[in-house]
Amino acid sequence: MTDITTMEDLLRDAPTNWGKWGPDDEVGALNYLDAAEVLRGAAQIRSGQVFTLQRLIGDPKGDPVWPGRSPAERTMIMDESHWDGADAPAAPGGLHYADDKIDAFLQGSTQYDALGHVWYGGKIWNGYDARTTIGGLDKASVEPIAERGVAGRGILLDMARFRGKKTLEAGETFTHEDLEACAAAQGTAIEPHDILLVRTNFLALFHERGDAFYEDFCEPGLTYSPELVRWFQEKEIPNLVTDTIANERTIEPETGFALPLHCALMRNLGITLTEICDLEKLAASCAEDGRYTFLYTAAPLKVHRATGAPVNPVVIK
Ligand code: UVW
Q1: Which among 202, 177, 187, 181 has a CA at the least distance from the CA of 286?
Q2: Which residue minimizes the CA distance to atom 2 of ligand 1?
Q3: What confidence tens digit (pLDDT) does each residue in 61-85 have?
Q4: Is 65 inside a domain boundary?
Q5: Ligand 1 pocket test: which of 245, 250, 257 has the largest number of ligand atoms within 8 Å of its C-beta?
Q6: Which residues on adjacent β-strands are paired with residue 173?
Q7: What backbone phi and psi angles, to 5 degrees, belong to 26?
Q8: 127 lies in which domain range?
Q9: CA 246 to centroid of ligand 1, rounded, Å
């Protein structure tokens, strides 16, 4: 690994899906989720239990965000205290109302990453020029993902429970083989086109350590290897969903690079990443009834030219 000094060196022979869905594609591996896959997902429904996976925006316990981003701020614009003042809007008949707004990083809470969110070597997903990101994403923004929506068979891979831990530790890692072993221990198997939901219970770790977490910031998660990338490509995984900020171990130990899997999976294979989900209630239910597969659905907010967007994924068991 000594001659590897850039992401281009690391991923020189890495596989890509560029062109697989045509020269104009902007949603990548989500193309695997056709109508038959939606029905395969719906066929998992047994009890009709519904789980929402979005974290609370403005959680008083604190919001985990990538360093350099800040948690969302909600501001009250109108409430009962505004209606006596001279600036109160005209509302004939005595109507009062409350209004508020949020100032939020689109990558700041539970969110879908657009395929054009990360890149290296001057090219984003499908080979589009990285200059198409200037001033907003003209290619592979979150818009086409939001427009099509996401639905299919989801499988929870409860890595924390599999390892017998309340939460995985900072920097703790696992491979695709560990995901397969976890699935087997749960009495299920990862099938082609499955949407993978990987639980580390990172939020408990984050809340335990508070701001100190950022001092030696390294999340637990999948870590880069050529074999892992090939496995994701061969399994035709459309969407990787986790409870961590970055969906992978933050720093790749051998090279020291940040987020090589973002590059290998998202930029090269077109696999959509969904981050900072709350998987706790779902995980408790799966552990209780032993059913780890379900219908997974999600649609990020439609935000013009955005790098990502907030989402509240819904799982039905
Ligand atoms: C980066 O890619 C920097 O962040 P995220 O984990 O939100 O994708």
Answers
A1: 187
A2: 118
A3: 888 899 889 999 999 999 999 888 7
A4: no
A5: 245
A6: 221
A7: -130, 5
A8: 7-57+110-316
A9: 5
Statement to judge: residues 152 and 230 lie in one domain: yes
Q: Are residues 88 and 161 in the same domain?
A: no
Query: Which ligand 1 atom is at minimum distance from the Cα of 111?
Result: 7
CA of 117, closest atom in ligand 1: 2
Structure tokens, 235? 């399994």
Nearest CA to ligand 1 atom 7: 107
Count of residues in the chain: 317
CATH, residue 218: 3.50.30
- Distance (Å, whole) CA 298 – CA 145: 10
Q: Is the dihedral of CA 120, 121, 123, 127 positive or negative?
A: negative
Q: Nearest C-alpha to atom 8 of ligand 1 is from which residue?
A: 246
pLDDT digits (tens, 9 = 90+) for 155-208: 999 999 999 999 999 899 999 999 999 999 999 999 999 999 999 999 998 888
Asked casually if ipTM beats, i.e. exceeds, 0.90, the reply is yes
Protein residue closest via CA to atom 4 of ligand 1: 246
Compute the average pLDDT of residues 36-47.
98
Helices 226-234 and 176-185: crossing angle in degrees, nearest 10, is 60
Same domain flag for 216 and 87: no
Q: Whose CA is nearest to atom 6 of ligand 1?
A: 246
Residue list, ligand 1 pocket, CB within 6 Å:
66, 107, 113, 117-118, 245-246, 259, 262, 275
